[in-house]
Amino acid sequence: MALAYYPKPGHILLCDFNGFKKPEMIKRRPVVVLVNRGDLCTVVPLSTTEPSPIEDYHYQIPPQSLPDRGKFHSIKSVWLKGDMVYTLGHYRLQPILLGRTQGGRREYFKQRLGREQMKQVYSCVLKGLNLSKLPAYL
Fold first, then answer.
1. For a tag on the chain, would you pick the N or C end, based on fewer CB atoms within 10 A?
2. Is residue 2 part of a domain?
3. How many CA atoms does the CB half-sphere of 107 hold within 13 Å?
4. How far is it, in rounded angstroms, from Cα 67 to Cα 58?
5. Which domain holds residue 99?
6. 99 has which bridge partners?
7. Cα–Cα distance measured from residue 80 to residue 25, given in angstroms and rounded to the nearest whole number
8. Dihedral sign of CA atoms 99, 105, 107, 108 in order
9. CB neighbours of residue 53 within 10 Å
10. Is residue 76 part of a domain?
């Protein structure tokens, strides 16, 4: 299902990375929206595999910020990969389906990461781009 809305920073969506090649992201995975511009979204991917080694550009997303139903129900930890930023068309993004209501309607995850969590996300992205010292000069 394509997006029927313009996502805001902090939304967690699913992204289809099919068509890319390793070492790029290559499968369907959750992402955090950083910026939305028209029909393009800048996102950073999430992974259920703990990075080895854990770097400054990795951030473990708190479990309470993730869906508690659907495919995410059994996931123990999710890691942000701040060194892998992508700008993609909306056609690659879709909301996370949680299930169906008793009436049969689809229910989607709409919660966004909070301000403090997004500070961590942006910090990881700056570190992943080797720009973490830049704010001191602005």
1. C
2. no
3. 12
4. 20
5. 12-137
6. 107
7. 13
8. positive
9. 6
10. yes
Sequence letter at residue 103: G
Q: What is the CATH number of the domain that holds 51?
A: 2.30.30.110
Residue 11 is classified by DSSP as B
Q: How many CA atoms lie within 13 A of 18 on its CB side?
A: 6
Chain segment 103-137, per-residue pLDDT in tens: 989 888 888 999 999 999 999 999 999 998 877 77
Q: Is residue 117 part of a domain?
A: yes
Domain assignment present for 129: yes
Number of domains, the chain: 1
Model confidence over 34-58: pLDDT tens digits?
999 988 999 999 998 999 999 999 9
Map residue 102 onto helix, strand or coil. Answer: coil
Q: Are strands 97-100 and 106-108 parallel, antiparallel or unpaired?
A: antiparallel
